[in-house]
Amino acid sequence: MSSAENPIFSEARLAEIKSVVERYPAAQSALLPVLHMAQEDFGYLSMPVQQLVADTLAVRLMAVREVVTFYTMFREQPCGKYLMEVCTNAGCMLNGANELAAHVCETLGINMGETTPDGLFTVTEVECAGACAGAPVVQINNEYHEKVDAAHMDAFIADARGQGGAA
């Protein structure tokens, strides 16, 4: 695997991309799954990675940028080992998401959107996690945690740091 600054898809990944593209009437239609693959391979979607995706699908870089900047699941910067995405939409907000987000940031000593100096945690907010019945919701590395409170997050952070607690 190459780095996000000097990206090259492996032969196996190129074969997978070709298979995905064949399912659609136009290569640009495969943009979402190919971006997911690129983020999986390189960790985040740097400009060189976005250009690689554009070149691979033979689409304009602007078409890639429009998708990357629209969807919150795509990252343009490296993130911590644990990406904690706090839903702050109305349902979660009314159930304490803003206070929860502030607590997590204060506990970690970072601001929203930042990564801890040890590279372990990144905290972001998302507009809607789509799980309002479980509000407040925190998605940690693509795994949903519902009805989360400060104690749950403290235990997760302690466990991730190897200090005990239940994640």
How would you describe the overall organization of this protein?
With 167 residues, the protein is an alpha+beta fold. The protein has two domains: 11-70; 82-160, Glutaredoxin (3-Layer(aba) Sandwich), CATH 3.40.30. Helix content is 43%, strand content 11%. The longest helix is centred in the N-terminal third of the chain and has 12 residues, at 31-42. It is elongated, with a radius of gyration of 18 Å.
Number of helices: 7
Strand order within the widest beta sheet: 2-1-3-4
| Basic shape | elongated
Provide the domain count.
2
- Can you name the CATH architecture of the largest domain? 3-Layer(aba) Sandwich
Instruction: Let me know the number of strands.
Output: 4
Gyration radius, in Å = 18 Å
Class per helix and strand makeup: alpha+beta
C-alpha termini separation: 31 Å
What's the average pLDDT?
92
What is the beta-strand fraction? 5-15%
Q: Report the CATH topology name of the largest domain.
A: Glutaredoxin
Name the CATH superfamily classification of the largest domain: Glutaredoxin
N-to-C series of helices and strands = HHHHEHHEEEH
Helix content: 40-55%
Keywords, separated by commas or semicolons:
single chain; 167 residues; alpha+beta; 4-stranded mixed β-sheet; 7 helices
List the helices and strands and how they pair.
Layout lengths: L10 H11 L9 H12 L4 H11 L3 H10 L11 E6 L2 H5 L2 H12 L12 E6 L11 E3 L2 E3 L4 H11 L7
Parallel strand pairs: 1-2
Antiparallel strand pairs: 1-3, 3-4
Helix pairs in contact: 2-3, 3-4
Tell me briefly what this model is.
With 167 residues, the chain is of the alpha+beta class. Helices cover 43% and strands 11% of the residues.
